[in-house]
Specification:
Layout lengths: L3 E5 L3 E6 H4 L1 E6 L5 E4 L10 E5 L1 E8 L2 E16 L3 E13 L8 H18 L4 E3 L9 H6 L25 H4 L11 E13 L2 E11 L23 E8 L3 E9 L6 E2 L11 E2 L5 H16 L2 E5 L5 H15 L7 E5 L2 H5 L7 H7 L1 H7 L2 E4 L17 H4 L25 E4 L12 H7 L6 H15 L11 H7 L8 E3 L11
Parallel strand pairs: 13-20, 16-17, 16-20
Antiparallel strand pairs: 1-2, 1-5, 2-3, 3-4, 6-7, 7-8, 8-9, 9-10, 10-11, 11-12, 12-13, 13-18, 14-15, 17-19
Length: 498
């Protein structure tokens, strides 16, 4: 752990960072000025001394600027066995200036805000690493050649998920103070060592909450005029071995239309859908942003199709259908509550069957660790045995190489493909037929064979893997991201899972 000393008195605040960065930070509490220097601090007995791990940033409150530092962390694990990830468990909020100039009401307001800020930043939902860029996924890092390194992560951070970027603006203005900047994400991270087919691996799950249209449950719903949705989260599943890393990404968010659900005394507050604002324009911006960043979009709605929520579902269906001539979107409406009512979780297989061919098409990102970023092997593993992935163990079937996807737009189907061009239909097996062609149980030798097939695919010579979306991506000049699914369902019981 990288630790620094913090000295606090009535007249000054000093961050002793000389052993790590070669300088100290001095804050004059009489006028709020801040500067760096190499002179050693000389605290007296009346100074308060704290050991801190990093500077979260500087925030403006009623009484003026406040320094927010991290004094408690939990070691989550070492990503790739070398990048330690920490969860923030405790912070200190220190005002630059004394509160003598504040009135009684202002002082009460300041103390309340100070308490709320400290409580929020210590809630356990903020994560950081000194050496790994948690704001970007593995494919971004490989395709853009992003490098880690202490004190440099903020220069390549994805601003969508750089939670404390605005708090670091005063530090970013100084070339020297930039060394104190630590990029944090808000969300959830889990790191665990696993054994797959006799091979030691590391399983990592990272959920990143976007900073745009941030807010608490109920108070923030829907989309804004820029296309940013509430509760927008990118979840990345990573599997690491000694010489490669595979990554699969999906995103979720609130329904991208203008609607509200302001809290009342009711258990489930009523929905209020705007009848005057342009839903289609905002939704188009939202999906255009997703397409530019990730490629072709598969949008899954988990909304109820009846009752009050049904009105929201119908409005969204009308909006997304109107985008037919503009974007590559596949839309799947899956009434989660109706299908899974009474603990009928097996009905989720209906949804899994609907997205099977898209799952194959998107595949996953695989990067060889021993190559330079510009030469990184990025492969779409489209011949993954999909039904085997749905089991509790990782099993790969190299015999199925079907890269096609359904273009059916039948009104009786649970999904539609919205595309500006007509595509020739291919005959595909139904989900039930596929189940009959895949063995539901395998011997130990067969499982080992499957794993060997997976490793051969991952270590194959670099060859271009084409998908039906490749021409579209090449035309508009962006890379194909790994498999992406947009969960726009408003499942209240699950919204606070992060």
């Amino acid at each position: 752990k990288i630790k620094m000393e913090l000295y606090i008195s009535d007249d000054a605040i000093v961050i002793n960072a000389s052993s790590k960065h070669g300088f100290n930070v001095f804050i004059d509490r009489t006028d709020g000025s801040m500067h760096t220097g190499t002179q050693a601090p000389s605290p007296t007995l009346d100074w308060e001394v704290e050991v801190i791990h990093c500077v979260l940033g500087i925030v403006q409150l009623v009484g003026g600027p406040c320094l927010v530092v991290v004094d408690g962390v939990e070691n989550i694990g070492a990503l790739k066995q070398k990048h330690t990830v920490y969860k923030i468990t405790s912070t200190i909020v220190i005002p630059f200036l004394s509160n003598a100039h504040l009135s009684e009401s202002e002082n009460q307001c300041f103390e309340r805000m100070q308490y709320l800020l400290g409580n929020f930043t210590s809630s356990g939902s903020l994560y950081f690493s000194y050496t790994y860029n948690l704001t970007t996924n593995a494919q971004q890092q490989a395709t853009l050649g992003l490098v880690g390194g202490e004190g440099m992560i903020h220069t390549t951070a994805d601003t969508r998920y750089f939670f404390n970027m605005s708090m670091h603006l005063p530090l970013l203005a100084s070339k020297e103070l930039q060394k104190l900047v630590v990029a944090c994400i808000m969300g959830y991270i889990h790191i665990e060592s696993v054994n797959i087919g006799g091979y030691p691996c590391q399983y990592v799950l990272i959920s990143r909450r976007a900073t745009a249209r941030a807010g608490t449950r109920f108070f923030k719903r829907g989309v804004d005029v820029e296309g940013h949705v509430a509760n927008h989260i990118e979840t990345e599943q990573i599997l690491c071995t000694s010489d490669m890393i595979s990554s699969f990404v999906q995103v979720r968010g609130s329904i991208p239309i203008f609607w509200q659900q302001l809290p009342t005394f009711q258990y489930k507050p009523p929905f209020v859908i705007s009848h005057t604002r342009n839903h289609t324009s905002a939704a188009a911006k939202h999906f255009n942003e997703l397409s530019l960043r990730y490629g072709e979009v598969v949008c899954v709605s988990l909304l109820n199709t009846s009752g009050e929520e049904g009105q929201l579902a119908r409005t969204f269906n009308d909006v997304i259908t109107s985008l037919l001539s503009e974007m590559f979107i596949k839309y799947i409406a899956f009434d989660f509550h109706r299908e899974c009512r009474g603990m009928k979780w097996h009905n989720l297989s209906k949804l899994m069957d609907d997205i099977e061919t898209d799952f194959r098409m998107h595949g996953m990102c695989v990067v060889k660790e021993n190559e330079r970023p510009s030469q990184a092997m990025l492969r779409t593993i489209s011949d993954v045995g999909y039904h085997q992935l749905r089991k509790s163990t990782f099993q790969f079937d190299s015999n199925n190489s079907n890269h096609e996807f359904s273009t059916s737009s039948s009104s009786t189907s649970r999904h539609q493909r919205l595309s500006p061009t007509k595509k020739k239909k291919k005959k595909l097996l139904t989900g039930a037929e596929r189940k009959r062609t895949h063995s539901r149980s395998k011997s130990a030798s067969q499982l080992e064979h499957d794993h060997d097939d997976m490793m051969r695919v991952m270590n194959a010579p670099k060859t271009a893997t084409h998908s039906p979306a490749d021409n579209f991506h090449a035309k508009f000049g962006f890379e194909t991201m790994d498999g992406v699914y947009v969960d726009d369902g408003e499942d209240d019981e699950e919204e606070e899972e992060e």
